[in-house]
Design goal:
single chain, alpha/beta, Aspartate Aminotransferase, domain 1, Aspartate Aminotransferase, domain 2, seven-stranded mixed beta sheet, four-stranded mixed beta sheet, about 15% strand, globular, disordered N terminus
Length: about 450
């Protein structure tokens, strides 16, 4: 006989641990930090099953753009699910998919002609890799089989996406299964302000010269450069600059190397413009989008494809791009995405973002000042801020600084998920001043609690 609904809800963590395998989680960590049962979300907050609010300082892995459960997106999803839940996208179409594609192409840098939908960021990267490779086969360039990517980069964890990751932490265990990739050096700017985004930051860095030299040396065998614009998010929020990105894109394209821009984490307002590629500005050959694409509500991803790229896939059926996903172009996810894009216009969110960026910058500086020597570096690009925490030798005997900081923040009602020694903020773009104050207050408190 089933227990009461309340008792079943309270028992969720135990039932979870009996059966579920969580991503990016060590089984031993669950003893110190069991999964938190969440019952609802609203705005910048998650609420556990006891009703306790948790301020979402990282947009639940960088997805929530307008805040959780925005009524416009909720209404769009409800309307859509009542009319058309799903239909295979091979041989069928529907208004949400078409209208969302039209809206994305309209808002993207000029030059895009096609949109290929998929269901997550890693899958979007796989699509882009395969498109570039098959393009070479069908244009008489079979020697162009290699990809280039940046050291410290992250592009997902399916096999192709993992191969182009520049992080040994993710890639090394599976290295025997992965293709060989040319790794390019990455600049790192430890302190700079949002205004630097529109400057030439990184263009004259020695690492840019080295990266370009490698592209030139290997141009005959490279099919594509895979690159995260401006910031490597999973790479401890390493900020590489608009000048570096723009220069590498221009050089690669001049050498006949496709550019695959991974905007999965940095798109949809995170850098202060709708897309990070709006800053240089450049138009990569293939642009991968996800996370904020649906407003952070449903799994949805796509690849924007340069106009004319599709021409080499025409003709005989054997030239078709034979790649598919069951939930490609799902109507409900596309309806959420369209509602999210309309919200940018209706609320004039991009116009209001500079003020939010400065509000975050003020609090970032306050946190760094309050923590003094406990922070080595602090930095910010748009609505993404990061603090590199300096742990005194022996202060964290088990070496799990990030885990201890996360636990301390959660005890204080804030979701932070540090990347090793780097605390970062990537909140909903709509987070209020009071909520930013709370985010800053808890950041200081949890660092002092762990290292003070």
């Amino acid at each position: 006989m089933l227990g009461s609904p309340n008792a079943m809800t309270q028992d969720l963590p135990r039932r979870d641990q009996a059966l579920l395998w969580h991503p990016a989680t060590h089984f031993g960590d669950l003893e110190k930090l069991p999964p938190i049962a969440v019952s609802r979300a609203q705005g910048s907050y998650l609420f556990d099953t006891d009703g306790r609010p948790i301020l979402d300082g990282i947009s639940s892995w960088w997805t929530s753009v307008h805040g959780h459960c925005h009524p416009d997106i909720v209404a769009a999803v409800q309307d859509q699910v009542a009319n058309l839940d799903h239909v295979m996208f091979a041989g069928f179409t529907h208004a949400p998919a078409v209208e969302l594609a039209e809206a994305i192409v309209d808002k993207a840098p000029p030059g895009y002609g096609k949109v290929f939908y998929t269901d997550c960021g890693s899958a979007a990267i796989e699509v882009a890799l395969k498109l570039s490779f098959q393009y070479r086969l069908q244009t008489g360039e079979p020697q162009k089989t290699r990809f280039a990517s940046l050291k410290n980069s992250y592009h997902g964890e399916t096999m192709g996406a993992l191969a182009v990751c520049g992080s040994e932490f993710y890639r090394e265990p599976f290295s025997p299964l992965l293709m060989d990739v040319l790794e390019l050096p990455t600049p790192f700017f430890d302190r700079h302000e949002h205004a630097d985004l529109s400057s030439n930051l990184g263009a004259d860095d020695p690492q840019a010269d080295r990266a370009i030299a490698l592209l030139r040396e290997h141009a005959d065998t490279l099919t594509a450069l895979v690159i995260e614009p401006l910031i490597q998010c999973a790479g401890r929020m390493t900020m590489t600059g608009a000048g570096f990105y723009g220069r590498l894109v221009a050089e690669a394209q001049a050498l006949g190397i496709h550019v695959i821009a991974d905007e999965i984490a940095v798109g949809f307002g995170r850098t202060g413009k709708l897309l990070a590629s709006d800053w240089p500005p450049v138009a990569p050959d293939l642009m991968c989008l996800s996370k904020g694409l649906s407003g952070g509500v449903l799994p949805l991803a796509c690849v924007l494809i340069r106009r004319g790229f599709e021409d080499v896939f025409s003709g005989a059926p054997a030239r078709s791009f034979m790649h598919s996903h069951t939930f490609t172009g799902n109507p409900i996810a596309c309806a959420a995405g369209l509602a999210s894009l309309k919200l940018f216009d209706r609320t004039q969110l991009l116009t209001r973002l500079p003020a939010r960026v400065e509000a975050m910058a003020t609090r970032r500086r306050q946190v760094a000042s309050a923590l003094g020597g406990l922070v080595r570096h602090h930095r910010q690009l748009g609505m993404i801020a990061a603090f590199e925490v300096a742990a005194p030798p022996g202060k964290v005997p088990d070496g799990r600084l990030g885990l201890h900081l996360r636990a301390a923040a959660l005890e204080r009602g804030v979701l932070l998920r540090p990347l090793h020694d780097t605390i970062y903020w990537m909140p909903p773009l709509t987070m209020s001043d009071d909520e930013l104050d709370r985010l800053a207050e808890v950041t200081v408190a949890c660092v002092r609690a762990v290292l003070g």
